Amino acid sequence: MRFISLLLIFHITAIYSIGQTNLEQAKQYYKDGQYAESEEIWKQYILEGFQNAEIFYHLANCHYQQKEFPQAILYYQKALSINPAFKTASDYLLKAQKLADVEPIKNKKWKIALWFDHLSFLVPSMVWLLLVSIGLSFTLFWSFIKPSRLKAIIFLGLSLISGILLARQEWVKKDLKQAWVVMDNVPARLSPDDGSLSEGQMKAGETVQVLEQIDDWVKVQSGLLGSYWVERNKLSAVK
After folding, report:
1. 110 contacts: CB under 8 Å, gap ≥ 6
2. DSSP structural state of residue 141
3. How far is 106 from 21, CA to CA, in rounded Å?
4. What is the pLDDT of residues 112-136, one digit of tens each?
5. What is the dihedral of CA 31, 32, 34, 39, to 10 degrees?
6. CA nearest 165: which of 112, 120, 111, 114?
7. Using an 8 Å Cβ cutoff, are 39 and 62 in contact?
8. What distance in Å separates the CA atoms of residue 158 and residue 9, rounded to the nearest whole number?
9. pLDDT (tens digit, 9 = 90+) per residue, 149-201?
10. Cα-flanking dihedrals φ and ψ of residue 147, to 5°?
11. Residues in CB range of 111: below 8 A, 6 or more apart
């Protein structure tokens, strides 16, 4: 039991130490004006599962400083979708919107859902998976090797909660909800075909809500035009 506990502490400490080193490097690059280098580190954090409001905020700042306002808008929105009370991100989002001359839509979400998503991204998925494994191991130990119903229930609960948070994190990662228009004058069509009537045009950098997809066409909710169809290659999703 002591060996397992020490092993768990070692793994978590190692993950934290490596993460802190990279985090400081990313911040230093940003201070030195090396925004592209800083951007790459923040993106790597996201790919490794470290998705939280602060990381999306720092990534957005890198795009903002490089005058890539459409990308900055999306990552500020990502940060705010996890932590709606993030005032600095909200302030910079307004500035980026003004500079990009777009009017993104707001993503409505229940507060309990926002809190749950925020909790699921506090640690990377591999940590949740490790906690599931540890919890199940202790559950088996206290159930069969040294029976203790209370301790077995506690560790089983830990496994279940960690498993739910892991599943939620993976679901959110795969769930394409927002995208941005990558070029100007994109036709907003009434149906998914080139011959359909166009009810307006979308601007580069406009944020849209993805509703559904059929082949090469995506139905989106635009804050300016309403619900329309656009070609998939005219959009870029938040990764």
Report:
1. none
2. I
3. 35
4. 776 777 788 777 778 899 999 999 9
5. -20
6. 120
7. yes
8. 16
9. 999 999 999 999 999 998 887 776 655 467 778 777 888 888 877 777 787 88
10. -50, 130
11. 84
